[in-house]
Design brief:
This protein is mainly beta. It contains 1 helix and 11 strands; from the N terminus they run E-E-E-E-E-E-E-H-E-E-E-E. The strands form 4 sheets. The chain has a 5-stranded mixed beta sheet. Strands 1-2 form a two-stranded antiparallel sheet. The relative contact order is 0.22. The mean pLDDT is about 85.
């Protein structure tokens, strides 16, 4: 956290008969953006478009999980290794079997290096 400051407010009636005070500390949470592409094609000539990876900075490997599910809720890809998710990702295969055109759901959760948690869900479209 980055502390911005503390603000104090005091309210009172015109004649000063009643008053009340309140303080609030304002903090800014400094996190980086987390990004999961929503479409990929394993046959793409661009290697960055041929897999689904987790993009983001200042992510911690501690407690990291990345799951991809088919339309029936079965896990088709999972990793708890941040380096794997950022370097290799999912190539559209499960147990050596290529998946066809379809929409998949993902869940990614973990922590930033500053300890703040993140969790995101979304969909990924596989296009052959």
């Amino acid at each position: 956290f980055k502390s911005i400051g503390t603000y104090n407010v005091t309210l009172s009636t015109k004649k000063g008969e009643c008053s009340d005070s309140y303080s609030i500390a304002v903090n800014v949470v400094e996190n980086t953006n987390l990004f999961i592409p929503n479409v990929f094609s394993p046959k793409s000539s661009n290697p960055e478009n041929s897999t689904v990876k987790v993009y983001g900075e200042d992510l911690s490997n501690e407690g990291f999980e990345f799951f991809i599910y088919n339309r029936w809720g079965q896990v088709v890809y999972r990793t708890s290794n941040l380096d794997e998710a950022q370097s290799y990702g999912w190539n559209g295969e499960t147990s050596g079997e290529e998946k066809g055109n379809s929409v998949f759901t993902y869940t990614v959760r973990g922590k930033y290096n500053n300890g703040n948690p993140f969790e995101e869900t979304g969909t990924i479209t596989l296009v052959k």
